[in-house]
Design brief:
Length: about 375
C-alpha cells in the first residue's frame, strides 16, 4: 500500500500499521480500558443526519473561520499530540509545514520532540502551545516563558490528565518513551527495519521542553501513564488555571472540558476558548463523546468564548455536523498522526487535502457556500 492509495482516515490507519512497530502503532491507535469511549467519539456523529438544500448557487466555497482572533482557511486544525518523532523522524516539523501550507493552526505539546523556538522560526501560521501543569513550578514557569518568547498565539492547559488513563494496549506492548527494546518487543522492531533504521540514524529522540529539568526529557524510560501520574500536579485547581491564564496574558483555553458547569467556570476565569474533548478516549472510558456534549455547552457559553470540538473526527461530514451545532472549529490527533506515520509531511498534506476536498464537496451538496451559514436547521437528530 502506498500513500497515493490512501483516500480516507481508514486508509491512512492501514498504512501507519504497515509502517510502525506494534508498540508505536498501538500507542496511537489505543485508548483506555475497553475503548468504549474511543469508539463512541466517532459513532456519535452517525446519530445525526444532515438535511441538504438545493439550487443555492454554490460555485465558490469559503471554508475559513476565525478562532482565538486568528483567521484560518480550514475549520479544522492539528491538535497537539506528544512524541511525534516516534511516528516519523520529521515529527512536528512535518506537521507544522503541512499546517502552514493549508493555513491552519498547529498545536505543539509540552511533550513535543521539537522545540517551540524551532516551530516559531519555521512557520508563520497560528500556533498553540499545549501546557501540562507539573509539580515542578520551575518547569511550569520555564515552559510558559518559552512559549511566550516564541510568540505562540494560544496557550491551552490540558485539564483531563490529572492521572494516567488505563491504556492496556501500552501495558501489553511495553510502550515507553523513548522506546524500550525489550525481548518481547524486539521482533516487532526488527520486522520494521525502515522505521528502526530511521529512529537510530536520524536526530536523537528528545523532549526539549523538559530536558533542562528532568531526566524524562533525555534518556530515562517512562510510560505516558507513569508520566501523568507521577510528574503532573494532582492538586491542580481552578485557582491554578486562573493564575496561569493571568500569567500568560493572551488567548487562553482549557483542553478537556466536558461539562456545562466547567465550561461556565472557564468563562469566569478569563478563558477565550475551550476544547470539548475526552483526550481521544484515552483517559476515562465510559465518558461521553465530545459531540454528544457539544450542543448544551455551546448553548451555555458559545456566545462568550470559542468552542472547539475535538475527537473522533474521520470525515468532512463530521466537521460539518459539529459546526452546525455551533462549534467555531474542530481539531483532532489521530486524523493526522496516522498520515504522519504513513508518509511524513506528504502524508499530513494528503490528509488535509482530502479533508479540504470533502468539506468543499459536502458544502456544495448541502447547498451552502460558507461555513458561517451552517446552523442546526441543517441537522435532524434520530
Amino acid at each position: 500500500m502506498k500513500i497515493s492509495d490512501c483516500h480516507n482516515f481508514h486508509d491512512f490507519r492501514k498504512l501507519a500499521r504497515q509502517n510502525l512497530p506494534y508498540p508505536i502503532f498501538n500507542y496511537i491507535d489505543g485508548a483506555a480500558d475497553d475503548e468504549i469511549t474511543y469508539k463512541r467519539n466517532s459513532q456519535a456523529y452517525n446519530d445525526v443526519d444532515l438535511v441538504p438544500n438545493v439550487l443555492a448557487g454554490v460555485e465558490k466555497i469559503d471554508l475559513s473561520t476565525t478562532i482565538f482572533g486568528k483567521k484560518i482557511d480550514l475549520p479544522i486544525y492539528l491538535a497537539p499530540t506528544a512524541v511525534q518523532r516516534l511516528f516519523h523522524y520529521d515529527g512536528e516539523r512535518a506537521v507544522a509545514r503541512a499546517a502552514e501550507k493549508f493555513n491552519t493552526m498547529f498545536g505543539i505539546s509540552s511533550l513535543a520532540t521539537v522545540s517551540v523556538e524551532e516551530i516559531s522560526d519555521m512557520i508563520k501560521t497560528p500556533k498553540l502551545f499545549q501546557f501540562y501543569f507539573h509539580k515542578d513550578r520551575g518547569l511550569n514557569d520555564h515552559m510558559l516563558q518559552r512559549a511566550k518568547s516564541a510568540n505562540f498565539d494560544v496557550l491551552a492547559l490540558t485539564v483531563d490528565t490529572i492521572t494516567g488513563g488505563n491504556r492496556e494496549r501500552d501495558l501489553r506492548s511495553g510502550f515507553a518513551i523513548p522506546p524500550k527494546f525489550s525481548f518481547s518487543s524486539l521482533m516487532s522492531f526488527l520486522l520494521k527495519p525502515k522505521w528502526s533504521l530511521n529512529y537510530l540514524t536520524k536526530p536523537k529522540f528528545e523532549l526539549p521542553h523538559l530536558q533542562e529539568f528532568v531526566v524524562e526529557g533525555t534518556s530515562a524510560v517512562t510510560s505516558i501513564g507513569e508520566y501523568f501520574s507521577s510528574m503532573l500536579d494532582q492538586s491542580m485547581s481552578w485557582k491554578d488555571a486562573e493564575k496561569l491564564c493571568s500569567q500568560w496574558g493572551g488567548h487562553f483555553a482549557l483542553k478537556g472540558i466536558m461539562s456545562v458547569e466547567d465550561a461556565k467556570k472557564a468563562v469566569d476565569i478569563g478563558c477565550t476558548g475551550i476544547m470539548v474533548s475526552n483526550h481521544g478516549g484515552r483517559q476515562l472510558d465510559g465518558s461521553r463523546a465530545p459531540f454528544d456534549q457539544l450542543a448544551e455547552i455551546i448553548d451555555a457559553v458559545g456566545d462568550k468564548i470559542d468552542v472547539i470540538c475535538e475527537g473522533g473526527i474521520q470525515r468532512g461530514t463530521h466537521i460539518l455536523k459539529a459546526l452546525s451545532l455551533g462549534a467555531k472549529a474542530c481539531s483532532g490527533g489521530r486524523m493526522y498522526l496516522y498520515a504522519l506515520a504513513a508518509s511524513g509531511q506528504v502524508g499530513v498534506e494528503r490528509s488535509l487535502g482530502l479533508f479540504q476536498a470533502e468539506l468543499e464537496r459536502d458544502m456544495k451538496l448541502m447547498g451552502l457556500n460558507s461555513i458561517d451559514k451552517l446552523s442546526r436547521s441543517n441537522l435532524k437528530f434520530r
